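Two records follow; treat each independently.
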Amino acid sequence: HLIRMKISSKFQAAPSATGGTTSSSSTVYRRKKFMVMLLDRSGSMSGDWPTVVDSVERVLTRDLLSDIDTVVRLVVWAIDATEVPIPRDASGMADIGALMRDLRGVYRPTNQSTYFRSAFRQAGDLVEQAFESGGELCGVSKECVDVQLLVFTDGCDTSMGTAKQSRESAKTHFVSMKERFKDIIGVSSVFIY
C-alpha cells in the first residue's frame, strides 16, 4: 500500500510594525509556498512507482511550476537522497513531459533499501538553503511562507531488520524531521493522508 504523508505549516498573519497582526484592510502580504516532494524509490516501490509518477504529474502542473510565489523541489531516495532537477524547455518553462520521462527512466526504483533519515535530512537541508543568502526565500519573512512536505512511500524503512523495527525507525525519523522543521520555520501542523 502506498502511503502519502503531507506536512504543512500554516502561519498567522504577518506581524505589523505595532506588534499586532495586519488585517485584510491594511497591507496585503503575498504568501510564498515552499513544497518538497519526497519519492521513495527503493525496491519495494517498484510496483507502486507508476502510481507515484502519475500522482507527481497531477500535482506538478505548469501553473504551479510557473507560479512566482511557489518553490517546488523534488527528491528521490532509497539509501541516499538525490534532488531531481526540473527540466526547462527552450522558453524557460518547466518541461513536465521530460520530468516524467526522467522519473520513469533514470530515477525509477532501484533494488536498494529504504533509509528515511536521508530523505528527511535532504528535505530539511532544502528548506534551510531556501532561506539562506542566495536562496529562493532569502529576505522573505518566515511568517509569510507555507512549507509543505509530501512523502510518497510504502512506509517501510528496510534499513531496519523486522517490520516492527522498520515502523519504529520510520516514526523516529519522522518525529525528528518534524522537530527540525519547527526549528527552521515553526511548523505548526502535520497531516498524514
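The next record belongs to a different protein.
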Amino acid sequence: AAQSLISTALTHFPQHEGLLLAQGELAIVQGQASQARQAFSKAVAAQPKQAQAWFGLGLIESERENTRAARALLGQALSHDPTLSKASAELATTETMAGNTAAANQLLNELLTREPANYVALTALGISQLQTGQAREALNSFMRAGLIEPRYARAWVYSGIAFYQLGERQRAIEAFERDRKSTRLNSSHTVIS
C-alpha cells in the first residue's frame, strides 16, 4: 500500500526529494537494493546536498561490504550534515569491517561519547572487539545494541559469533535464530528513524 501511494505521488511530483527518500527507505525495508539505489540517486540529482540520500546510498554499499564506495558516499553525507550520527555510525562500521581500526575507533569514541545509546555504533564497537579477541566485551556491546533496538539484525548475528567464540553453542544458535526473526521484521537498521 505504501509503495503504491509513493509511486502515485511521484507521478505528480517526480523530483520531490521527500518522496524519493521515502521510496528509497521503503525499498531498503523490502530488501530491494537496486530500487533503493535508484530512488536515492534521483534524490541526490534533485538535491545534491541531501545528506539523507547520500546516507542511503552509503548504507547500501556498506551492506554489500563495498568499502571504498561506502566510505565515499557516507563521507558525502557527513560533508553535507556533519551531525548525521547514523552516517557516522555506519562509516565506523565500514571502517571496522575493513580492518581500519584506528579510523573506526576514532569515530566510535566521538560518537559513543555524544550518543552512548547509538546501537549501530555499539555494534561496530563489538565487531572491533571481536577482531581483537575480546569476545566477552564484544558480546556486552552487541547485547546493549540489541536491547536498544531489538530489530537490529547485525547485532544479533555478531552476538551469535561472540557466543560461539566463547564456546556457548546453544546461545549462538539462539542469537542466529533471533537474527532471522529480526531480519523478517526489519531489514533496515538505520535508514528509517
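Discussion point: Residues 184-193 have pLDDT under 50 and may be disordered. How would you locate this feature using only the C-alpha cell line?
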